[in-house]
């Protein structure tokens, strides 16, 4: 669970399964805003890291799936999400109702996911407020990227073209629980989609921004001058 600098005033903490679960910290005055909440197993390290960075001011969920809300109930900070994610963030269930695990092609992976989701989950999260398209979070603009989840959001900073995007794009093969080859990306698998066609449109919207850095919800960030081509190709997978 090493801390790495992603961009000016932005840090990434990776943890849990193969270090593939991501929590971002964004400098905000004397403290930091946390974007996404990772898994329950990361809670102590996330709390310590936030303290080391000046203190946690608030948590903003990219969305409310079990592996993105896991630490939120344990950190004592107000939690925000998109209005469309509130019922899922506050729900008891670790397995989101619109998931269709039968679509996963590998049987052992289908069988293990309910156990993994319960292990990753920290339980229901009390939502203190909401953020939506056009709002500002620690110098980033909130963008709504529905599809993988109805209220999935990303954070966009135009001045250096940095995008923190939760699960708008996958840098992992969720059907086999392993990283994608370096530099490759995909739209999230339909098994996890609230609306798969919307997920593809959202990924194309991200591509059109022509980001230089894409911090996703899993694995190390994508970097480069031609990420648009990578992201557009990713939208055509699945």
Molecular structure report:
This protein has 238 residues and is α/β, with parallel strands linked by helices. It has a single domain (3-235), classed as Metallo-beta-lactamase, Chain A, CATH 3.60.15. It is 23% helix and 26% strand. The chain has six helices and 15 strands. Helix 5 (196-208) packs antiparallel against helix 6. The radius of gyration is 16 Å and the shape is globular.
Task: Output the keywords.
238 residues, alpha/beta, Metallo-beta-lactamase, Chain A, seven-stranded mixed β-sheet, six-stranded mixed β-sheet, 26% strand
Summarize, please.
The chain has a single domain, classed as Ribonuclease Z/Hydroxyacylglutathione hydrolase-like (Metallo-beta-lactamase, Chain A).
The chain-level structural class is alpha/beta
Distance between the terminal alpha carbons, to the nearest Å?
31 Å
Principal-axis shape equals globular
Q: What characterizes the major β-sheet?
A: 7 strands, mixed
Write the layout of secondary structure elements.
Blueprint: E1 3-7, E2 10-15, E3 21-28, E4 31-35, H1 43-52, E5 56-60, H2 66-69, E6 79-81, H3 86-89, H4 107-120, E7 129-130, E8 136-137, E9 140-144, E10 153-157, E11 162-166, E12 172-173, E13 178-179, H5 196-208, E14 213-216, E15 222-223, H6 227-235
Parallel strand pairs: 4-5, 5-6, 6-7, 11-14
Antiparallel strand pairs: 1-2, 2-3, 3-4, 8-9, 9-10, 10-11, 12-13, 14-15
Helix pairs in contact: 5-6
